[in-house]
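Final report, results section. Input specification for complex C-07:
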Amino acid sequence: MRSVIAVYVENKYGVLTRVAGLFMRKGFNIDSLTVGETEDPAYSRMTITLNGDDYAREQLINQLKKLHNVQEVKLLESAQNVERELLLVKVPNLPSTRSEIMAAADVYRGKIIDYSTDAMIIEVTGEPLKIQAFIDVLKPTGIIEMCRTGIVSLERGATVLHGTEE
Amino acid sequence: MKKTRKNLMTGAQIAIETLIEQGVTELFGYPGGTVLDLYDALYQARGRISHILTAHEQGAAHAADGYARATGKVGVVLATSGPGATNLVTGLATAMLDSVPVVAITGNVPTYLIGKDAFQEINITGVTIPITKHNYFVQDVRELADTIREAFRIAKSGRPGPVLIDIPKDIQIASCPYTPQPAVEPFTQPIVPDAQIDKVVDLLSKAQRPYLYIGGGAANCDLGKQLMALSERIDGYIGCSLMGLSAIPHTFDRFLGMEGMHGAYASTMANLNADLILGVGVRFSDRATGDPAKYCKDAVIIQLDADQSEINKNVKVTLGLVGDLQDAVARILSRVAPQSHPMWHDEVEALKEKQCKIAKQTKAPRAGIDPRDILGAVNRLKDDDTLIATDVGQHQMWTAQNIQLAQPRSFLSSGGLGTMGFGLGAAIGGAVGTGKRVILLTGDGSFGMNLNELATAVSCKVPVVIVLFNNQALGMVRQLQTFYFDRRYAGTNLCRSTDFVKLAEAFGAGGVRVTDLAAFEDALQTALQSNGPYLIEVPIDTDALVLPMLPQSGAMEDMITEQNGEDAT
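Structure output:
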């Protein structure tokens, strides 16, 4: 079962190592981890996608809360949050497949951000299922290489992760 | 301007002054290249803080740990970079697994050499992330004092644990103003909500066979008196994990002793038969519960702990409470009405009787002195003030089963990590911290791991009596081979010819070898009157087993209580 967990952390020495190390030593199976600065540069926000049962989810949240640099941990329920992921994918630029690829990119609202004689790079954003579907479409014509950011997620409405209890 | 310049201190001086401000009077350590400035600051501060030089950094870490266990204060250890820092690893992990407040300070190479694989450089913060509650790499001398203060605060708050502070050499040399501050108070702990306390009271009042299972958290919060009162109020019984030993005096008749893998028959079976288990400051470790999937499936289990992540971690509980233990137990006690469960009383009394019968039936070992007799003599001759330390193995379990402890914090033993070699360092730390006499019960295997700390015990004139159970084997592991590997004793028969008495004497300690119980009692009396360390070597049957025991991955009801004839199965 997939869970999305948002973590608000102090932007300090070794924080990413502490969080990442936790997954290894407690045996958690995570699908993705994204991290970046927040509106306050003293803090970073992580979005973790966990693949595990209720026990794993409860343990992960409780163990994260124990880390001294972690300020807030919240399970994001899919009905109340929006999720996005960004994909960059490099495909061959061949006369035989070019129009098919460009048509697919158009349907998935992708943007061609590099167009070279031998290859193209397409940028697509969306929910993870859409990203996966687009990748599946490209597979028959060949993928040279690709890069996914992992999920970022915010709750709908004015709710905030940090300061909710204040 | 003039005023600030007057207050300028080097990082090293600030570090030592901050330790003093936090109430540190003794610390354990070992010098080296990157802590020269810290040692110079210690020299300048002599008379206000004393340094105990150990033989090895591991011994220093165990000493800081033993100091903290015995006093309840934060233990402090100081080590140099590189090997000095890595030698702390086992000590920090031991403190982590048993939730002991320790602050470790390490030197490191100057910041401009970090990452260059400089001489004796190691990323000790990276190494110790999994085995500390938190750690710091100090990059600015202006943050040093507050970092140390925060480290103390984290170490002693909530569920205590070790914190490491790595200070590069150039930070120790740099200067900045320093203003002393009062010792930090622990973070305020959450209070268990009233509704949950009411729920506990309701469950307790419905229970017919209540059992309190207490651990290190209860011992650490000095909950003994309150828990004794609670057990009387609800007409229940108390058992404990290894870490819970010493929380309840052995004389209390509702206290059944340690339960679990090598626990007392009565407490293990009482836990198994209880219809309500109230866990206080325990993590329901696999060593205590046996197979967690089979653990008390039909009972109501309530877990009270300072650490949220312990709730439901090892055992699925009916009700989990997180918060200040003292406050929660006090509120439960103030609300629960007196109960009476004569049938449960009879049942437990029958278990106690059976336990006595089993003990009588257990055959004396064929050679050496019966370990239970040794502990009986220790119980007779020690006073209530004496601290008991152990290493890890058969002697530890015999001690846990038989030792009579009267006072909280009087038992120093590595529970979670099971660190052989823990005992001597911890005994030294406990003695230094309390000024009390220590009896260390150890085995020839464990003692061999860190016996170099005899040098420390001698130089510090620590009144530690070392009772060395010599079975010429790594008995606990060998016992598992007896049961599960058809007596194929791979690597567990020691075949050494160490003369432990000569060894003690070579270090400058007293020592004697005894061969019978009467001689042991005489030797122990002599040892208890000597001022420095004294070693008594006691021969133990190589084939002696620790019983009862729970079989590997077995449940509580599978407890093995006797050795059948020649076959130990």
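Chain B touches chain A at residues 125-126, 129-130, 133-134, 137, 139, 154, 307-309, 311-313 (CB under 8 Å). Chain B has three domains: 2-177, 194-354, 363-546. This concludes the modelling results for the funded period.
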